[in-house]
Write a structure and sequence with these properties.
- By secondary structure, the protein is α/β, with parallel strands linked by helices.
- It has one domain: 3-Layer(aba) Sandwich (Rossmann fold), CATH 3.40.50.1380.
- Strands 3-2-1-4-5 form a five-stranded parallel sheet, with helices on both faces.
- Helix 5 links the parallel strand 4 and strand 5.
- Helix 1 crosses helix 3 and helix 4 packs parallel to helix 5.
- The model has no long low-confidence stretch (mean pLDDT 89).
Length: 136
């Protein structure tokens, strides 16, 4: 399964703790992240992560392209809803793509934990097809 990990600046500590706590599950999957988020997760947890550009420099769009091409299965995006983001249109587009392509999206730690539980139990097993996904 391909999992994207993204976090706004004020949520970096949260995604590090989340990744470390879920390391057993995450290490079984292909991990992708925006630049700084991927760097700090890899440094703190030693997980192998493919890093894109930082979010404001196009990383959100790179992950969005994977979603649009049916190449991403889950997105964990710990957003900071109380701070204005200069790349908010990119954030909105990424979230919209998750909705369009039925990609599970966690925007807070509680939903992220529920997704990890589901992935660990293999409740989220998808095969992408041209029309979206089919459950196995």
């Amino acid at each position: 399964m391909k999992i994207a990990l993204i976090a706004h600046d004020k949520k970096k500590d949260d995604i590090i703790r989340f990744s470390d706590a879920n390391k057993k599950v995450l290490k079984k999957h292909e991990l992708y992240a925006t630049g700084t988020t991927g760097k700090v997760i890899a440094e703190k947890t030693k997980l192998s992560i493919h890093r894109f550009q930082s979010g404001p420099q196009g990383g959100d769009q790179q992950i969005g392209a994977m979603i649009a091409n049916h190449e991403m299965d889950v997105v964990i995006f710990l957003r900071d809803p109380l701070t204005a983001q200069p790349h908010e249109p990119d954030v909105s587009a990424l979230m919209r793509l998750c909705d369009v392509h039925a990609i599970p999206l966690a925007t807070n730690i509680t939903i992220a934990e529920i997704l990890m539980y589901s992935i660990e139990r293999s409740d989220i097993v998808k095969k992408h097809s041209e029309k979206g996904f089919v459950e196995e």
